[in-house]
Amino acid sequence: MKLQFWSIGKPHESFVKEGIEVYTHRLKNYFPVAWQLIPSPKNTGMLGEADLKKKEGETILSLLKPEDYLVVLEERGKMLTSEKLALFIQQRANESVKTMIFLIGGAYGVSEEILKRANFSWSLSSLVFPHQLVRLILAEQIYRAATILRNEKYHHT
Length: 157
Prior knowledge:
Elements: E1 2-8, H1 14-27, E2 33-38, H2 49-63, E3 69-79, H3 82-94, E4 99-104, H4 112-117, E5 120-123, H5 131-149
Parallel strand pairs: 1-2, 1-4, 3-4, 3-5
Helix pairs in contact: 1-5, 3-5
């Protein structure tokens, strides 16, 4: 199963870039993994929240394949422990999912169309984090889940 991390917005800030690269590199020992940074639509300052989410949603939908398994990071999504996340990933692999995409939406979240298309909505926390840090947390948590699946020492309970 291939893992893809998609994020709306600018390239990784230098203060998180190194951490993202470290966890992404480690994760490649378990799954093929890639990042796709999707630029914000042009003239975002001229768009209202709903229009911006709609434009971002249209871009995302145009990039998705019908068979892609889409996990949207969403504040109202379901929270998972690290162990449950590992189990969730293993279950998708057992279902022969070819590509699992983890999507970090734009500044205002994602459109209703994306939520409807999503196979799963996941909340990292009830706290709010900057998008750049969410990228780092996502990479680390997926790496942690991979080590749990292999019963390795990285995760301590």
